[in-house]
Amino acid sequence: MVDCKTLNLAANNIRILTAAMVEKAKSGHPGGAMGGADFINVLYSKFLTYDPTDPTWINRDRFFLDPGHMSPMLYSVLLLSGKLTMDDIKSFRQWKSRTPGHPEVNFELGIENTSGPLGQGHAMAVGAAIAERFLCAKFGEWMSHKIYSFISDGSVQEEISQGVGRIAGHLGLHNLIMFYDANNIQLSTKVDEVDSEDIEMKYKAWNWNVITVNGNNAEELCKALEAANQEKERPTLIIGKTTMGLGCLAEDGSSMESKVSTHGQPLSKAGVSIPKTIANLGGNPDDPFVIFPEVEKLYAERAKELTEIVAKKKKEQAEWAAKNPELAKKLEQFFSGEAPKIDYAAIEQKADQATRVGSATVLSVLAEQVENMIVASADLSNSDKTDGFLKKTQPMEKGDFTGAFLNAGVSELTMACIMNGIALHGGLFAACGTFFAFSDYMKPAYRMSALMRVPVKYVWSHDAFRVGEDGPTHQPIEQEAQVRLLEHVKNHNGKNSMLVLRPADVNETTVAWKMAMENIDTPTGLILSRQNVKNLPVAENTTAYEQALGAEKGAYVVKDCQGKPDVILIASGSEVSTLFEGAKILEEKKNLNVRIVSAPSEGLFRSQCKCYQESVITPNVPVYGMTAGMSLTIRDLVGEKGYIHGLDHFGYSAPYTVLDQEFGFTGETVYNEVCEYLNL
What we know:
The protein has 680 residues and is an alpha/beta fold. The chain has a 6-stranded parallel beta sheet, sandwiched between helices. A 5-stranded parallel beta sheet has the order 1-2-3-5-4, sandwiched between helices. A 5-stranded mixed beta sheet has the order 12-14-13-15-16. It starts with a helix and ends with a helix.
């Protein structure tokens, strides 16, 4: 039997704490959190399974909050669960507090994802649900667990929700339970002023199990969650009709519920009486930062229940491990967070291929040797060449998650966010591919990867204008400069927030993938060519692979000269081969000492010691740079006094060989411009 009295009291406790912490911080979003308090209270006090003493326990249920602005609700329930302290609550939104304005991933505190940009949170939940199904397919249903998510009206409106709904329904992710907080209030309008969708029918059309309840009724919520946990074929959407700012009163005692004004500011600024509201909710206006004794007892009892539940599940795991020692060892390795051990030197690359083809060669090896890796493509696998992985596995399907490839369909942003969720779940490597021009669709996701420090691998093929006949819509010009900005932004651990690599040939591509797989701290972007690229000449007494290992320092000398160079030529990707063509002419016609530098990652290069940097780009030596993107892409490498041949315009539709000539990406151009630069 549901003790609605205690559950209602606990929900009101969360509402009081929400109102108080926003008021104290003088900023925040109280109204929605107050309306959603009943669901999150029922979830944490009755349904969510986790180990209070082991927050990273692999078999825990996961809760993904989508509308991060409703953080007061989450922080309040984490306080009741013993994860946060009252001091944490009182320091809401303050410098270096554990309760920032929007939640930031922290497994130790029970926060599974960073949230804020609406829509991304429930996409991550889908990723976690996919990860759970994939792991259960490998190790057994003993490790099954639930993925819960909380969405809002705004989350549903974000276009990403279509991709999330479609993919989750298509795959039949019955382990995914999502609560939709339908309060009809947005930040500046009511929902019905901008939206007349039938949400229930929409999700049913996507093959979801849909349950509609009074979202402020504890008994109805319990019944809905019980039913959702019994569902075996479909993801479940619980539509909870809730009241924004539930319990809010004006000074004259009139209701301030369902007001747009209570969404995004302290309640007092919306005309709400804080004392009357807190008293109305059963609290003490003079001391709102309190946990009611009955609520403390409710959560203490749940902690005791969880101890028993977790002990039983861990015993089941131990029994399974004893019977399956090899699988148990593999599971431990999966969740170790360590990079896989691959003999990259043994990978055989065909000469003079497109770097996307070189990537496919590596992916085919990874598919065979990295059992805990999932790769996805946005309907481009045979073009971005992630099919190198697909050919050695099979696509995931409803009821069959033995394959390791996700056909995401045309949904770049959704796909990338799902990969973030897979990575956040733990135990798995995640990679996804599309054309580099369409990385624009993914920007919010890879920025979130950088913020959360999750090592998703982004495979971006068809770089630069050499996409050719497809024309300017498909020819990335400014994209490289955009993504490389994250090499200049430090994450909260003080590291470059993203590793971006544009390999010069197939051998550098092998090394680039080595670097990507060994980078377990940040996301990696691989920028790959559509067209064939000549292999770089290999120096004496080394191999192509050994030489390409220089890429691990971000930039390295691929061709040097006797004595001090007269000029240093620097580029990344396809342009490095062009520099070799130009260097040959400069040496033959002008007898110049020429050094060529391949710089797949400026950010990584600038992380090296000063002495190494100066050994590559010697001070007071003229530097010439070439880039098929905007000149500013390599401006910092070339220096203010250097010369850059780049692009300051969009591409055109024509064969790439024609565009090379028209845009001046030839050895002759290098020769002529260096001569002009050096006044020869």
